[in-house]
Automatic annotation (TrEMBL):
The lineage of its organism: Eukaryota, Fungi, Dikarya, Basidiomycota, Agaricomycotina. It holds the Pfam family HNH_2. It comes from Crucibulum laeve. InterPro entries: HNH_nuc. This is HNH nuclease domain-containing protein. Residues 188-259 form the HNH nuclease domain.
């Protein structure tokens, strides 16, 4: 079965339901392979019930039934199968919400496994994970990203320190600053190193890796990319980080800001703002920026991995198109309040 055929059949299966989230997962998965793998999960759920239907309608009792009895049984069994198919697809919908979206949104206590019979027993255990803490190479990242927030164009305050200390540095920074030396149009901030794929996905108790195996397996199957390059401390690699000002960093972590490639312009990316903040947040000129993208043929390149950017952007788009962002934000707020109570009162 081709990717297009799988996609079409999966879309037809979902078209009977007035849902927005699962169809968005299917439509906006960041690669063709990811779309195919989401499609096959949907089709395998459907295939289970197609087999049950064929088995029931071809049973000896049905073959010997009268025309009227056969039609009545067929109608009743179709209603039953539609209900069961609905339950199966709702499980998949819940799975992507709790094991893909919510962990990237900061909530990892609702992770659930898929338990369909067509999945192998080692579906999750065959995907090992490694725990680590956060780290970054801020100096290298500042230099690579031109001491600039890649979303807003704000320069890092380190440039002011360099100027005060008489460090000439790279002339490309000073051309902009010198042009506005007396009108204070240059906006500066203390830039932060932001992870594209959250480092929190590798921040767990080493004795309890099970739910993180589920998270990473779900993320890899959805994306269609090989994410072994993010295992353990590698999640802190420069290829998974970029420099942002604090506000842009918060929006990026909240899945309200993303970067998507500008067609036919190498290393040029559009800065996307989602939801109620769109149009209000000050961005770089033309809302596009240059990102040093990693060359997969090079082992020394310190550029950003474009696959990671694609995954992050896809999640932002899914939340926007499905309309569930506000709902998940409320859930996260409630969860954080409960966690704070537990920390304060020790219950």
């Amino acid at each position: 079965m081709t990717i297009d055929e799988a996609m079409k059949l999966a879309e037809n299966t979902l078209s009977a339901y007035n849902w927005t989230f699962l169809p968005s997962i299917l439509k906006y998965a960041p690669s063709q392979r990811g779309q195919f793998q989401v499609s096959m999960l949907i089709l395998n759920i459907r295939y289970q019930f197609d087999l049950d239907y064929a088995k029931n309608m071809n049973s000896p009792s049905m073959k010997n039934a009268s025309y009227e009895a056969y039609n009545n049984e067929e109608k009743a069994f179709k209603v039953y199968l539609i209900c069961e198919l609905n339950k199966g697809l709702m499980k998949l919908d819940s799975y992507y919400r709790n094991s893909l979206i919510l962990p990237l949104f900061g909530l990892k206590n609702r992770v659930e496994e898929l338990s369909f019979s067509f999945l192998p027993q080692d579906y999750y255990s065959g995907h090992p994970v490694e725990s680590c803490s956060r780290s970054d190479n801020r100096d290298l990242l500042l230099y690579r990203d031109d001491y600039m927030c890649r979303a807003t164009g704000r320069y890092d305050l380190e440039l002011g320190v360099m100027a005060f200390d008489g460090v000439a540095g790279d002339s490309r920074y000073w051309l902009v600053i010198d042009a506005h030396a007396h009108d204070h149009l240059v906006s500066a901030d203390y830039l932060q190193a932001a992870h594209v794929i959250p480092y929190s996905l590798n921040n767990f108790d080493k004795t309890k890796p099970e739910e993180y195996q589920v998270i990473w397996k779900t993320l890899q199957e959805f994306s269609g990319f090989n994410l072994s390059t993010l295992k353990g401390k590698l999640i802190n690699d420069d290829s998974n980080m970029l420099m942002l000002c604090p506000t842009a960093h918060k929006m990026h972590d909240d899945l309200r800001l993303s970067f998507s490639p500008v067609p036919s312009q190498f290393n040029r990316f559009k800065v996307n703002i989602f939801g109620e903040l769109a149009g209000w947040f000050g961005l770089v000129k033309d809302e596009t920026t240059t990102l040093e993208v990693k060359d997969n043929k090079s082992t020394v390149d310190k550029g950003i991995n474009s696959n990671y950017l694609a995954i992050h952007h896809a999640i932002c788009v899914i939340l926007e198109k499905s309309g569930i962002y506000g709902e998940l934000k409320k859930e996260r707020k409630i969860e954080y309040i409960e966690m704070e109570k537990e920390y304060i009162y020790g219950n």
